[in-house]
Amino acid sequence: MSAINLLREVLKASEKAANIARVCRQNPILFSLLVQEKSKDESNTRFAHDFKTLADCLIQEMIKHDIGKQFPELRDNIRGEENAKFTNTAGESIIVSVTDDPGNTTKALEKILNGDKVSAAALVDEVYREVEIDFESLELPTDSIPLDNDWSQLGIWIDPIDGTAEYIKGEEKLTKYSNIVSSGLKCCTVLIGVYETCKGTPILGVINQPFAEKISNQEEFREEYRSKIFWGLSVGDLKFNNIASQGTDARIAILSPSEQSKYVEFIRNQLKYDVVYSSGAGYKILKIATGEAELFLLSKGTTYKWDTCAPQAILRSMNGDLFDLQDTLINKSVKKISYHDHKVTRNIGGLIAYQNIDKLREFLKL
């Protein structure tokens, strides 16, 4: 069992996901058909209205299919945020599925898109396209890295598009730091995290930013986007990632815009951080991994295992980690977020993330 083989497949799946996200958003007419509100049982309590898109559902099912095909023993342990049921404008509910037969996927998408064969075909092309990735530029380890577990002892959490609201709105707002955005497409990430089911420990994470870099298409007179991909791998004492630290002299804490004022004031006045607000849990934790911010804190239990598994794996590959905030505050211990039970999906105690664990100890003293 090679960790590098699994990493390669996860990277490929993330880039295919990014392509689907871009194709879905590229056509305004198609995009207007794709968005629907989640049911009460599915929605995040933080939002008055929580939306999912066909892109979310299609990406999730594609990743399940592609990784499950390569690693059949792992297939039943691949889980994601979205319910695969999508309802078209006629009120007909259709299950979005990706199988070895593109024809089945095409039929389902045509129903969802009210018979729009052209749009359905465009999406199916992306789902079954063989993506090319420059693995050399992603700095993958050259040596084989054996895994301690059988494939059946691993699980995967997927967030097909973390930051769906930003994906829908697409309205970019900047912070005073040019490398951290407050909202917009750059906050959107595809998150794929692999964990050990027996220990509940994340060991491999990929974060793909589908809209990281804007490029100009001169021939078609439109702007397009290119991905930026981050990965981290921890197997025993072996740690690998492709992240070049972008440390800053400023002490930056990155928070949710809805963070409680008592925490904001403590972080500003006691810890002496400069506070910036941003959207997307994956994006915010990524900024901790890259060193562009030092502290991420979320006091509310509004994130889920699919939000945190991939970024936590990356943090762990850099000797950082993600912790349960309330347990840390009450017991003065450092309880790491874990993934033992796939039925317990919510990080109910909130989160605190550091890349430098010594900084966490300073936090605890205060």
Automatic annotation (TrEMBL):
It catalyses: 1D-myo-inositol 1,3,4-trisphosphate + H2O = 1D-myo-inositol 3,4-bisphosphate + phosphate; 1D-myo-inositol 1,4-bisphosphate + H2O = 1D-myo-inositol 4-phosphate + phosphate. Mg(2+) binds at residues 81, 159, 161-162, 307. GO terms for molecular function: inositol-1,4-bisphosphate 1-phosphatase activity; metal ion binding. It is an enzyme of class 3 (hydrolase). SUPFAM superfamilies: Carbohydrate phosphatase. Gene3D superfamilies: 3.40.190.80, Fructose-1,6-Bisphosphatase, subunit A, domain 1 (3.30.540.10), Inositol Polyphosphate 1-phosphatase, domain 1 (4.10.460.10). Keywords: Lithium, Magnesium, Metal-binding. Its cofactor is Mg(2+). The keyword Calcium does not apply. Its EC number is 3.1.3.57. Belongs to the inositol monophosphatase superfamily. This is inositol-1,4-bisphosphate 1-phosphatase.
